[in-house]
Amino acid sequence: MHPSISPAWLCLLHPLLVHAQTEPRTYRASFTVNLVQRYQTIDGFGFCEAFQRAHSISNLPQPFQNEVLDLLFNTTTGAGFSIYRVGLGSSEDSRGDHMNSPQPSPAIEFKWDGYDSGQVWVAKQAQRYGVETFYADAWSAPGWMKTNGRDDQGGWLCGVRGEGSANGTKCGTPPVNYIDEYSQYLARYVKEYIDAGIPIRHVGFLNEPNLVKNYATMQSTGAQAADIIPSLSRALSKLNLTPVGISCCEAQGWSMARDLLTQLSSALPNFSSYLSVITTHTYKGAPPGPDVPLETQGLPTWVSEISPIMDRLGLTTTWYLNHAENEGLRNAVNIHEALTKGNASAYIYWIENAGFETMWWPDDKVNFTANSNASVGERYTIGSTYWASAHYSRFIRPGARRVEVRQEITGGRGGSLVEEGTLLLSAYDNLDGSVVVQVINNSDVVVSEIEVELWDQLVRFGSDGKRDVSRGLEKRGQDCEVETWVTGNERRFVLVASGEKLSRGGSFRGALSARSLTTYVVICVQWTF
Ligand SMILES: *[C@@H]1O[C@H](CO)[C@@H](O)[C@H](O)[C@H]1NC(C)=O
Ligand SMILES: *[C@@H]1O[C@H](CO)[C@@H](O)[C@H](O)[C@H]1NC(C)=O
Ligand SMILES: *[C@@H]1O[C@H](CO)[C@@H](O)[C@H](O)[C@H]1NC(C)=O
Ligand SMILES: *[C@@H]1O[C@H](CO)[C@@H](O)[C@H](O)[C@H]1NC(C)=O
Ligand SMILES: *[C@@H]1O[C@H](CO)[C@@H](O)[C@H](O)[C@H]1NC(C)=O
Ligand SMILES: *[C@@H]1O[C@H](CO)[C@@H](O)[C@H](O)[C@H]1NC(C)=O
Ligand SMILES: *[C@@H]1O[C@H](CO)[C@@H](O)[C@H](O)[C@H]1NC(C)=O
User: Fold this and answer.
1) Distance from Cα 223 to the centre of ligand 2, integer Å
2) Which of 190-194, 257-261, 495-499 has the lowest mean pLDDT?
């Protein structure tokens, strides 16, 4: 039934009968999950409510507020998002999109308002659901620390090499150096969160540092970032915040992140001694892959912001029409590529943008007070991107390791459906021992029948209590159960099979529908020896 496999492998064998609409052909395929070939650790999946977007949740009346919180954070009924990205304010006020700064002018004391544009409230809600990873990122320094004297319209931090050290800017002649002030400001800001009970794990000091915009923006090269990093590190340790890591550099796209890292490593060759995470956005380019990671000196890479806003596309409930950036299937493919080509350890969505809502949005046409019986569909809308993120986020938990999954195809025209871009596979080994296989069917071929044969590892625990997966393998059909979750055009995040025991031969049957995302969660009983 199964091909010869090395004994330490967990195998999901999928003989696939694939019928193309025009020219029927049959494939026989096996998916082999190799638990021994381990890749990056997954830190989680999350979202950001900066720029006062937090209010869209906090302003929702009940019961809708709790419904939306469940959709976002609940690990049994929602996406179970595990990372919350906070925007640290730099503005003088809270008008429009401004995130107010606790110290908008040097003349006044640093004054924390305990609210931080609504993000403290969301962070507290996240904690109620068990979220442990909080990431605080500043888009800019307050204006008074910058060459242009304002927090928007780009400009540089006074004191960084090049533009920050030039005469004749708002930094004065000769220029005042505000690097340490900015570092102390950020450390103080993070400490306020920690004192409020929200354990910020990483702090960033840049956001898309190539941009000059009418919102908080601060320019920087990798070398200029190197001028700030050691100072920020000192400021954090001065406040006993050494467990808080420093992230860099929130590039707008993958190749920009590569350039920033090259500049950073020339200016600060041991950057990994200071940093905890390398962050990048994928608006201007995703990992070109296959397997083209950033040169991070071994640090984890986070895709810390992405959404369809570059394409000026708003929320759609359509899962698949033509692969536009706002469609759910496209989001699934994007997540897949970040994880498998980019070695990403986290994937954080930019969840809302006025005018271009991306994942969910309260329906502002409804007067909540007047129409207290409005149905869910009238109160808020869930975009199809949400469902793709939920598949990855709910089942691949923090601490999981991505593992190798191979596909072998026989029959049909030969060749691999993976190579044809049809089936995109990835697999993850969770800390609780469950194994998750994500299968994106990105073509129009309907798989009418699949058979999965499962080999479970022989699980042992070391004296440190950690599972040792490299000891061997045994066929464990009777002790495993499989859940199958599917999203496609016709259904959203539907549990199509659960509690299914594997047959004596260790197999189960199912089907893959067209243009779908299927998640298999294989839960096996574990025991010690
Ligand atoms: C998550 O959803 C479950 C099922 O509805 C519920 O029992 C649980 O209380 C929710 N979790 C939180 C933190 O509200
Ligand atoms: C800036 O001005 C100071 C004082 O006038 C001068 O000493 C210094 O050389 C100038 N620096 C640059 C980069 O022009
Ligand atoms: C990084 O390297 C510099 C220069 O060798 C050294 O002074 C510094 O202590 C190093 N920093 C860390 C955090 O290891
Ligand atoms: C992938 O990321 C991990 C850290 O999460 C790192 O240890 C590993 O070297 C990276 N792999 C590649 C190929 O870059
Ligand atoms: C909403 O309805 C309430 C009750 O009818 C009314 O008092 C309020 O003015 C309405 N608000 C808006 C923004 O229309
Ligand atoms: C809402 O529904 C309840 C129960 O059906 C009804 O008693 C109430 O009058 C409704 N309220 C409005 C504003 O329509
Ligand atoms: C994938 O989806 C396509 C497109 O709808 C469908 O035609 C195709 O049969 C599916 N292929 C597999 C291998 O599931």
Assistant:
1) 21
2) 495-499
